[in-house]
């Protein structure tokens, strides 16, 4: 089993920045890909970014150039640096982890999910 704990959410004005962190514990040796999804009220959950154990990254088109995902394997932590935030980035952000071999897994291929952290961007 893997436990994921997110932190770093909050309220920020448009144009501001936040950094989300997700610490993994438990059977961390089994993790290949870690990622972030988000879900806004009334909308479907969507991929924000992911990073594989080899460092390959994937971003949603809406955040490319503004968000950066990184991974510190020594600390078993994945980060999401969010810059130039927009009101449409407001959502609950979920950290997740996949143990399969896919470099860019689909949502149903992630085995573990965190509880989520709220990000609110005011205009």
Secondary structure topology:
Layout: E1 2-7, E2 10-13, E3 18-26, E4 33-39, E5 46-51, E6 57-59, E7 67-72, E8 77-82, E9 91-98, E10 112-113, E11 117-122
Parallel strand pairs: 2-11
Antiparallel strand pairs: 1-3, 3-8, 4-5, 4-9, 5-6, 7-8, 9-10, 9-11
Overview of this structure, please?
This protein has strands at 2-7, 10-13, 18-26, 33-39, 46-51, 57-59, 67-72, 77-82, 91-98, 112-113, 117-122. The protein has 123 residues and is mainly β. Strands 2, 4, 5, 6, 9, 10 and 11 form a 7-stranded mixed β-sheet that branches. Strands 1-3-8-7 form a 4-stranded antiparallel β-sheet, with no helix packed on it.
Question: How would you summarize what this structure contains?
Answer:
This protein has 123 residues and is mostly beta strands. 0% of the residues lie in helices and 51% in strands. It is globular.
